[in-house]
Amino acid sequence: MTGRFGFRPEGEAPPPKSNRLIVVLSPKVIILLAVIALLMVPIVFLNRYEEIDTYSGLVDDMRVENVKLKEKITELEKKIADLKTDEGVERVAREKLKLIKKGESVMRIVEQKEE
């Protein structure tokens, strides 16, 4: 144990030496390491920039597809609204199901095959 002014009393053993390695770097070495680190930054992160570019392209494609799907939804909502009306139901019954109203007659045109 050291005394009041940093001196060891007589007969006291010095403290055990540490096994740690103390490295003192000169300012030139520190600057060289900093320059190397700064030169490595673009190399390390270049791949990340390519990924970001790829993903931003995908986002743009998805936005375009999203707009198209919203337009299709709007179109389908209009068709649904039309089919909920009496006129829409009648049109589908006539065109798709080939139904007729009571009292109407159907005329069928048959083409003859030429031989």
Give a short summary of the structure:
The chain is mostly helical and 115 residues long.
Major β-sheet profile? none
H/E topology pattern: HH
Total helical elements: 2
The whole-angstrom Rg is 44 Å
Shape call:
rod-shaped
Q: Quick one: how many beta strands?
A: 0
Mean pLDDT: 84
Structural class comes to mainly alpha
Q: What oligomeric arrangement do these chains adopt?
A: single chain
Strand content: under 5%
Features:
mainly alpha, 2 helices, 115 residues
Question: Could you walk me through the main structural features you see in this protein, from its secondary elements to its overall organization?
Answer:
The chain is an all-alpha fold and 115 residues long. The protein has a domain at 27-95. 58% of the residues lie in helices and 0% in strands. The chain is built from two helices and no strands. The termini are far apart. 0% of the residues are buried.
